Amino acid sequence: MDMQIRPAADEDWPHIWPFFRTICAEGETYVYPYEPTEQEGRAMWMERPPGLTVVAVDADGTVLGSAKMGPNRPGPGAHVSTASYMVDPAAAGRGVGRALGEYTLKWAREQGYRGMQFNAVVESNARAVHLWQSIGFQIIGTVPEAYKSREHGYVGIHVMYQKFD
Question: What is the pTM of this model?
Answer without folding.
Answer: 0.95
